[in-house]
Design brief:
The protein has 204 residues and is α/β, with parallel strands linked by helices. It has six helices and nine strands, in the order ααββαβαβαββαβββ. The strands form two sheets. Strands 5-4-3-6-7-8-9 form a seven-stranded mixed β-sheet. The longest helix is centred in the middle third of the chain and has 13 residues. The N and C termini lie far apart (35 Å).
């Protein structure tokens, strides 16, 4: 996976490559699909959600530019695979998931790996983290019509946010940096994610 689907497609960040080589992806997919865990495609994880293909996971992580000085907000815990990768790169990860069942499963998966620098919440991720605070990095792991205003408000000045932005059927992976309170957006590539449901996402 690392040699062919990541390095072979332009993922160059050595820390991203390192953690994706370390975290066992098969621990985040249902048992029936573990034989496909390292194929470069999304896999269902239940509740109408998926674990994204390895290349997209790596690309989103690379453009977010995470380091040990960062507190990261993740909108959409899902399987917890992306959460685990971020936790190995950041100071601390704060992750919110709409589905209590998925959140509980993800917590168990991270606990098995001994990852402790993650705080979990269940709720509407499009409304941001429940407590008032700022984050140096924010990743939205589901499609949004636009960057949700409450989430943008929690991005620190000079911070970076990445999300699949667009229509429900197709999106543009977009990375943005906050400068003088405004987002400077840069398109990365076309993509297709499941929808982020919520007050500032897509309607259920």
């Amino acid at each position: 996976m690392v040699a062919h689907d990541l390095r072979g497609r332009g993922i160059t960040d050595p820390e991203v490559l390192r953690v994706m080589g370390e975290i066992p992806r098969e621990g985040f997919v249902p048992p029936a699909d573990r034989w496909r865990a390292y194929a470069d495609g999304p896999l269902p994880i239940g509740q109408g959600q998926t674990i994204s293909q390895p290349y997209i996971v790596a690309l989103m992580t690379q453009v977010l530019r995470v380091n040990r000085e960062c507190d990261v907000l993740e909108i959409g815990t899902g399987s917890g695979y992306q959460t685990a990768l971020l936790a190995r790169l950041a100071r601390r990860v704060f992750t919110i998931e709409r589905s209590a069942e998925l959140s509980e499963t993800a917590q168990g998966s991270l606990s098995e790996l001994g990852i402790e620098n993650v705080e979990f919440r269940v709720g509407d991720g499009s409304c941001g983290w429940p407590e008032e605070r700022l984050f140096e990095r924010i990743m939205i792991t589901a499609a949004v019509p636009d960057f949700p205003p409450p989430v943008v408000a929690q991005l620190a000045e000079g911070g970076v946010i990445v999300a699949p932005v667009g229509q429900s059927s197709a999106q543009e992976l977009t990375v943005a940096e906050k400068y003088r309170g405004k987002l400077i957006e840069t398109p990365v590539c076309g993509c297709r994610f499941v929808k982020l449901l919520g007050a500032h996402g897509f309607l259920d």
